[in-house]
Design a protein that fits this description.
single chain; alpha+beta; YaeB-like fold; five-stranded mixed sheet; 3 helices; about 35% helix; about 35% strand
Amino acid sequence: MAKYEISYYPKAEDDLDSVEPNEALSIVDNIERFLSANPFPHKGRKKKIHGVMYPLYRLRIDTKNDSYRIFYMIEKREVVILRIVKKKDVERIIKSLRKQP
């Protein structure tokens, strides 16, 4: 099976920059591990976000220090990482994504 390419929106890059380097490395490793082969939801870590204009998904990543949610979309053979946020900020991010046309 061909791999999906992973790319990052500028906001997601900013999110990563705001995290400690070891945490950021762990997040990037997990994104690659869980999304490059099959980014589509199935049991557990990956879910589809409902109530938004375009297909949007969420990946749960737990690191040593915190729990993160990775918001992404799939375009052909590319996974586009939109945001990387701590679990406590999820509702705010989902609200902002629902407001966008």
